[in-house]
Write a structure and sequence with these properties.
5 helices; 12 strands; three-stranded antiparallel beta sheet; globular; alpha+beta; five-stranded mixed beta sheet; Glutaredoxin; 2 domains
């Protein structure tokens, strides 16, 4: 009887440990992975992600808490650029572990501010309630070595096929460059539509790099579209094309 009781107790303990491990499991989706799906309440109503956005580009921004100074500055910059993102076909999603009512209060406060001497602006993108940290675990937004168990500040750029295309994380003290996030989206869209690459510090409209293919025989690699008269090169491995 004691032996049977012992086996049952061990089984229950093992099951509890497995459940706890699964419940705390967190991982970061990598570039090329399918972006994890979720359903959550937001300041714009219930969001079924990514289905509600159809074949749109999407960017998820994670924040540790509402009313934090750095995150507040980022949301204001996003709000001032939200029309630019709309023109690019991009939907913005803000996630933190505060509840919906706190999100609404933060949004209302931000919409009353004149940041950088600009007029107050209405925030049109949703702030997502993730107090259960379900989304945080799916997207690896809580890092074990971080001094706290709060969200780290992450960015996930997701394409129309719901594939993760770019990832970045920032410390809590350093604000993200919203213009560069927009630039990254434009670069991804440009490389996808034109089969080119963008060099370091590339800005929209500047020249791009053209891929080359290695020759089967000895000799210099060949440029795939070498008949293009606009091409120019500074080395055999760096061939450029004007974007005009």
């Amino acid at each position: 009887m004691k032996h049977k009781f012992f086996l049952i107790a061990c089984s229950l303990l093992f099951a509890t440990m497995v459940f706890a491990q699964e419940n705390n499991e967190t991982s970061i989706p990598l570039i090329g992975d399918d972006a994890p799906t979720f359903t959550a309440e937001t300041t714009k109503g219930t969001l079924h992600f990514p289905e509600d956005y159809g074949k749109k580009w999407k960017i998820i921004f994670s924040h540790p808490h509402d009313f934090t100074p750095v995150c507040s500055s980022e949301l204001l910059e996003l709000a001032y650029l939200q029309n630019d993102f709309d023109e690019l076909g991009v939907k913005l999603v803000i996630v933190s572990d505060d509840d919906l009512e706190f999100h609404k209060n933060w949004k209302k406060s931000l919409e009353s501010l004149s940041y950088k001497n600009r007029e107050p602006v209405e925030i049109q993108f949703p702030l997502v309630d993730d107090k259960s940290k379900v989304i945080a675990k799916k997207y690896g937004m809580i890092h074990p070595s971080n001094p706290t168990t709060e969200y780290v500040r992450g960015v996930f750029i997701i394409d129309p096929d719901n594939k993760v295309r770019a990832i970045s994380f920032s410390p809590m003290q350093v604000g993200r460059n919203i213009e560069d996030i927009k630039r990254t989206v434009i670069a991804l869209q440009t490389t996808e539509s034109s089969a080119v690459m963008t060099p370091a510090d590339w800005q929209p409209g500047e020249d791009v790099l053209v891929p080359y293919v290695k020759s089967d025989k000895k000799g210099d690699p060949k440029v795939a579209n070498k008949d293009d008269q606009d091409l120019y090169q500074i080395a055999w491995y760096m061939v450029f094309k004007p974007m005009n």
